[in-house]
């Protein structure tokens, strides 16, 4: 329990957290006026994802107890205990010794003749506990040693910063199915919460259904359920750790029981340090909530070190920071991604996609004109724009490269060029370097109001 973190919140936005790896949402009907006023409530869902709070990793030059990788790490296991599916974006950032270099491929590291060169990557599991399957050319089962930069579940660290300010990173996206059984517990704040590791707490307010008898009290209970979830214990006990049963918002079958104590829960979680000893709280029970078959995944770090360096230590690769953003997603969204075959044990790989681009762009003479471009994904993608052309009196003219540029998803035509266009509408053909040699058209036209 102490090596896990329970992240619990009401879905309203992405939840962001990080951990560091060191080497080692009532209908009021007024029939007389013939209209219905619908008052919207928020139907909430509680997110709880169990992740490690620490992770052992090491420079493992001699592959001690980890044959096939010279970077050792524990498995970073993500376990969704939530009522809804979640999307987890993970960014890993490596800190290396000044002068050292991370290479683009494993083969480069194998053949490296320079000290300080290494290949570092993240490998995602393809099934429970497994990072690779099948047999190699020798007929033996494949191992970690057979993973490289071409493996579908491997992402290599690359510099996403600049030469002067490098950011050696990898990005991965995971989708985890909702829990198949979520449980909750009550915290009596007069008890010691310090032993409940890594839980977030939602303040409880006692709800007493009004009425002269059980029928009226059941009606009051259902009225409240039209607004929000209700939790109860089948006893008057408020002992620390007692199980809470949830009645979901919108339930129309619940009946009042005099032996139950009912509560509503605050939408926002309270930090452990802000717990009020005079109040009661609800928190997620990670141990007794059930993970769905597709609600769990894991990854680890692997690597290859240049043999040109006699001794590798933690000073060479000193730290990996793991940052993750957890967001709730609709069940239909998860299902569409899953059935499309884009997930391998939770790891998301977008389908191959050719370059796309906006087809029109309004410009103001003298100002740069930006066109949104997507270079594509996978085997159909391009890596750059090779040229921009247009027709002039039936002839194809190549626009000089100094009049346009491409950077970070934007094709920009410089202000001097839009000045030249003045009030002209011109169609341009943008050519890409993908295998299919894609060509797409964008029409530059003067913005409304241009004199």
Write the layout of secondary structure elements.
Blueprint: E1 4-10, E2 15-21, E3 27-30, E4 35-38, E5 46-52, E6 57-59, E7 71-73, E8 76-80, E9 86-96, E10 101-102, H1 106-110, E11 117-124, E12 154-156, E13 158-159, E14 168-176, E15 184-188, E16 201-207, H2 214-225, E17 230-233, E18 243-247, E19 261-265, E20 280-284, E21 296-305, E22 317-328, H3 331-339, E23 343-344, E24 347-348, E25 356-357, E26 360-363, E27 369-374, E28 385-392, E29 395-398, E30 404-407, E31 410-413, H4 415-421, E32 426-432, E33 439-446
Parallel strand pairs: 10-11, 26-33
Antiparallel strand pairs: 1-5, 2-22, 3-4, 5-8, 6-7, 8-21, 9-14, 9-22, 11-12, 11-21, 13-14, 15-18, 15-20, 16-19, 16-20, 17-18, 17-19, 23-24, 25-27, 27-31, 28-29, 28-32, 30-31, 32-33
Structural class by secondary-structure content: mainly beta
Q: Uncertain regions: pLDDT < 50 for 5+ in a row?
A: 1-37
What best-fitting shape do the alpha-carbon axes yield? globular
Count of DSSP H/I helices: 4
Cα end-to-end separation: 69 Å
Q: What is the rounded Rg?
A: 29 Å
Count of strand segments: 33
Fraction in helix: under 10%
Strand content bin: 35-45%
